[in-house]
Amino acid sequence: MASAEADSRLSRIVVPALEAIVKNVSWRKHAKLAHECKSVIDRLRNNNAAETAASPSGSPSDGEPDSTSPGPLHDGGPVEYSFAESESILSPLINAAKSGVLKIAEPAVDAIQKLIAYGYLRGEADPGGSSPEAKLLSNMIESVCKCNELGDETMELQVLKTLLSAVTSISLRIHGDCLLMIVRTCYDLYLTSKTAVNQTTAKASLIQMLVIVFRRMEADSSTVPIQPIVLADLMEPAEKSDSSTQFVQGFITKIMQDIDGVLNPGTPSAKVSMLGGHDGAFETTATVEGTNPTDLLDSTDKDMLDAKYWEISMYKTALEGRKGELVDGGDIVERDDDLEVKIGNKLRRDAFLVFRALCKLSMKTPPKEASSDPQLMKGKIVALELLKILLENAGAVFRTSERFLGAIKQYLCLSLLKNSASTLLIVFQLSCSIFISLVSRFRAGLKAELVFFSL
Hints:
Elements: H1 2-24, H2 31-46, H3 49-53, E1 70-74, E2 80-82, H4 83-97, H5 102-117, E3 123-125, H6 132-146, H7 153-168, E4 172-174, H8 176-192, H9 196-219, H10 243-259, H11 293-298, H12 302-325, H13 331-334, H14 339-342, H15 346-362, H16 374-392, H17 396-400, H18 402-419, H19 425-441, H20 444-454
Parallel strand pairs: 3-4
Antiparallel strand pairs: 1-2
C-alpha cells in the first residue's frame, strides 16, 4: 500500500505535467518524448493497491523499488524509488525542458520545481560526479537553466523559482560547477530580461543565494536556518514605492517558506538586513570574543540564550577551521594553484567558487570596439554590488580563512585596481565602498596590503 500511496503523491505533480507535455508535443518531432510521457503516466496510474498487496512485504517488485539501489526520487517518507525508476520518471521532464519549445518546457519546469520544493528529490547534483545519480540531477538542473534561453517572461520567473528552490533545498544538494551554472543563469537573466520586475527578481534571487551559500559555509551546515532577504533594505528610498517591490518580496519569501518546512522552526535566526550596518546575511559571530559566560546565564529570553550559544559554537568552528589552515605557517594551503579543487569541505568550496566568480565578473572590460557596452557595464555593476553586500556582512570564517584572504588579494584587489580608474561614477563609488569594507572588517595583515593598493 505504501508504494501506491507514494505514487499517488507523485501523480499529483508528475501526471498533470506529462499530460500537458503530450498535449503540446508535435508527434512528428517529439514522438520519443511523447512515448516516454505516456509510459510514465501509465506506470503511475496502474500501480494500484492490489498490485502492491500481491508482493511480499519488504521485497522489491514493479510497485516497490529495490531498496538496495535507491535513486534520487522518493515520496517524502520511507518509500524510495530505484535509480532506474527515478530516471524513467525524471527523463521525460528533463527532455521536455530541453526541447526548446515553450509550451512543452513550461509544465516540465513547473513539475521539477514542485518535486524540489516538496522534498521529493534528494542527492547531490554534480556534472563531474562519479555516480549516475549525481549526473542525472545535474542534467535536470542544466535543463532548467537552458529554459532561460526561451526569452519568455513567465518562463524566466519559473526558472528563477526553480533554481532558488534548488539552492535553498537541504535534500537536493547543489555544489561546485552546478552551483556556478545556477548563479551564471540568474546573472544572465538579470542582464538580458526585458522586464524590470524580472530583472529585480533575478538580482534578489542572486542575493538570496549568496545568503544561503555563505551562511551555510559559516555554520558548516546545510541545515542552518535561513531567513528571506528584506528587499526594501536593498533599494534606494525613491525605489521603495515601486509596485514591483511587493511582488518580488513575496516571490522570494514564498520560495523560502516552502523549503523551510524541513528545517528546525525553533532555531533562532535574525532578520536579514543587507544594508545599514553589519547585522545582515552572513554575520554570525559579531562580538562573541568578548562574551561573558555569566551574561548567558543571566538571560531570561530562551531564544536569545540559544542564539548566543549558536554564535559561540559558530565562532569555535571558525577557529578550528583556521587551525587546520595555519599548520606549518599556512604553507599547506598555499602550495596548490587550484585552490578550489583542493578544498575538501564542499560548503567552503562553494563559497570560494562563487566569490571568485563574482570577482572575475566585476573585472570584465569591454573590447575597444564596444567600449560603451551598456550590458557589460550593467553586469560589472551588479557583480560589484554583490561583492559589497558580501563583504559588509562577512562572517568569521570568511574573515579569518587564509583561502579567502588569498582570494581577496588575488582576485578582488585586482578588480579594485581596474575599477578604481573607471570613468563611470557608480563603478568608482562601489570600488571605494568595497575598499572601505575591506579595511574596516578584515585583519591587520590584509589592511597593510590594501594601504599599498590605495597609494
